[in-house]
């Protein structure tokens, strides 16, 4: 209830209240107290590391299914192809476009 309401004071009271808990729950309680500041920060912001975790997972799958790449450049290109909407991929496309379509100077 304290987490749903994003109430740090209520959460702290619940975690510090003397209770008879099973051993497993004591471990959970200790972990929540250890990371209390981070939990309260998550109340204030809505940031998530989900997109980063998803990207890491895609890279691991590429690495696993490839059985190794001959060189790092090929591995990097395969990742950029798979992550076509990522910031890195967009930068890479811009770099490739510059390299393949150089600005031609007009003769004056």
Automatic annotation (TrEMBL):
Residues 18-79 form the Transposase IS204/IS1001/IS1096/IS1165 DDE domain. InterPro entries: Transpos_ISL3, Transposase_DDE. It comes from the Bacteria. This is Transposase IS204/IS1001/IS1096/IS1165 DDE domain-containing protein. The lineage of its organism: Bacteria, Bacillati, Bacillota, Bacilli, Lactobacillales.
């Amino acid at each position: 209830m304290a987490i749903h309401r994003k109430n740090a004071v209520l959460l702290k009271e619940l975690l510090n209240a003397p209770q008879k808990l099973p051993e497993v729950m004591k471990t959970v309680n200790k972990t929540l107290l250890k990371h209390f500041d981070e939990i309260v920060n998550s109340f204030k912001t809505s940031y998530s590391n989900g997109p980063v975790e998803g990207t890491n997972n895609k890279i691991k799958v590429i690495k696993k299914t490839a059985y190794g790449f001959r060189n790092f450049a090929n591995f990097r290109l395969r990742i950029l192809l798979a992550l076509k909407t990522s910031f890195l991929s967009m930068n890479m496309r811009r770099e490739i476009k510059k390299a393949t379509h150089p600005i031609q100077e007009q003769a004056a």
